[in-house]
Specification:
416 residues, alpha+beta, Rossmann fold, nine-stranded antiparallel beta sheet, five-stranded mixed beta sheet, 13 helices, 19 strands, 29% helix, 30% strand, globular
Length: 416
């Protein structure tokens, strides 16, 4: 997915005050930087972007009324969407153009319909309006209807990379959830068929997904794909399986956080075409001793692995104040990872170094990739792209290589 435009018609804060009115933004295809003073609305805008790219507005539903319009591209088409929430009720219309087909998904009050080239695919469906996550709303559709929406690939993870110590603490502290792999005739195992809802044990975050565990399961699936299905399903149960993770291999090679690691699963047969993997554990070693990695790593090191896992899995990474707790090399590695994967990303920052690492191919792309956030008139938040004379002046000065992008924005009063 690529988000081209966002229009915020209105948005109320947690106290019911209207703090954003009639703001329209365009975005670049790579990293988009949200910059501005403290209290300028960068994190608020990041929350709105997270909801719009995931079609999941549950974080906003209890305290915020809003009206958003978005426009963007999919792998094989484009979309325009309209989302409006008032008093904890969400209405929306999303119009897709996919090759020669026009498909729309609409909810107005309790009326819900999906139209394909004008034909209603779902008949008379009542939507109760209690769920603000489109994925959950679509989950109960028949297989025949859902098959016609296969183009709609929701991002598996759209959590913001934040400074939540509980998330980084839990990153390495729990076992990996039991799950089942299905073997097919050709031996291939489509990983998307094995998505898991990760549940934290012993915490209140029972609905959270854990990117790190998800990556380990993906590496396990890749490993089994290479090995092929068992030659004989009658082999003994409770097999022990160990394998390497490409994600952890890269970290152990580039950073001295740990010397080595072991990942193991137990497994048991549940049918002639499937095997259950259970009791997944990831053990870390330093100086040949098992370590509790949460006690060994600093907060910055844990946050780095945490954000690496988000960049690895999120279709559109969203990171709040990416520089916090990091050596500049770590920040550059995170940015490099995003650019290598050719992902669109949204990042808030106060860092000159990050602004100077922004890549763009034209003046127009620079304008789309910088979002200026500030407090405007009547204490309402104001968002704008870098544009007009400011954009021309900034672009010309940076092109001469006499002064950096961050310094131009700062000393010319554009970034204030």
């Amino acid at each position: 997915m690529f988000l081209e435009e966002l229009e915020i018609i209105n948005f109320t804060n947690d106290y019911g005050d209207e703090i954003i009115v009639n703001q329209k933004l365009k975005f670049g295809e790579g990293i988009n930087l949200l910059i501005g003073p403290n209290g300028g609305g960068k994190t608020t805008l990041l929350k709105i972007l997270q909801a719009c790219v995931s079609f999941n507005f549950n974080e906003l539903k209890e305290k915020n009324d809003f009206h958003f319009r978005t426009k963007g591209e999919l792998e094989n088409g484009n979309f325009e969407a309209n989302f409006m929430a008032k008093r904890e009720k969400l209405d929306f219309s999303i119009n897709f153009t996919i090759e020669n087909d026009k498909i729309s998904i609409e909810k107005n009050g309790q009326n819900f319909k999906i139209l394909k080239n004008g034909e209603n695919l779902v008949g008379n469906v009542i939507a109760l309006g209690i769920d603000f996550n489109l994925q959950n709303i679509l989950r109960d559709l028949s297989n025949e209807v859902f098959a016609q929406l296969k183009f709609l690939k929701f991002p598996q993870f759209c959590g913001r990379g934040v400074e939540d110590n509980s998330e980084t603490k839990l990153l390495f502290e729990k076992n990996i959830k039991t799950f089942t792999i299905y073997f097919f005739e050709k031996g291939s195992i489509p990983f998307e068929n094995n998505l898991l809802q990760e549940k934290w044990s012993g915490t209140e975050n029972q609905a959270e997904m854990n990117e790190f565990s998800f990556i380990i399961l993906k590496d396990l699936t890749d490993f089994i794909n290479k090995q092929g299905p068992p030659k004989d399903f009658r082999e003994p149960l409770n097999l022990k399986l160990e394998f390497k993770s490409s994600f952890l291999e890269k970290i152990s090679k580039d950073y001295p956080f740990f010397d080595s690691y072991k990942i193991s699963f137990g497994s048991s047969q549940i049918s002639m075409k499937s095997r259950k993997f259970r009791d997944g554990k990831c053990i870390f070693l330093k100086k040949e001793r098992e370590i509790k990695i949460d006690n060994v790593l600093t907060w910055g090191q844990k946050r780095f692995v945490y954000l690496l896992s988000k960049v690895e899995l999120n279709e559109i990474p969203l990171i709040d104040e990416i520089e916090n707790g990091f050596h500049p090399k770590m920040v550059e590695d995170l940015l490099k990872k995003i650019y290598e994967q050719k992902k669109q990303a949204f990042i808030t920052t106060h860092s000159h170094n990050i602004i100077n690492n922004l890549k763009y191919v034209s003046m127009e792309e620079l304008g789309k990739s910088v979002v200026l956030c500030k407090i405007g008139t009547n204490e309402k938040l104001a968002f704008s792209n870098l544009k007009g004379k400011d954009l021309e002046k900034v672009f010309k000065k940076v092109e001469t290589e006499i002064i950096s992008l961050a310094n131009v924005l700062f000393y010319d009063g554009v970034w204030n």
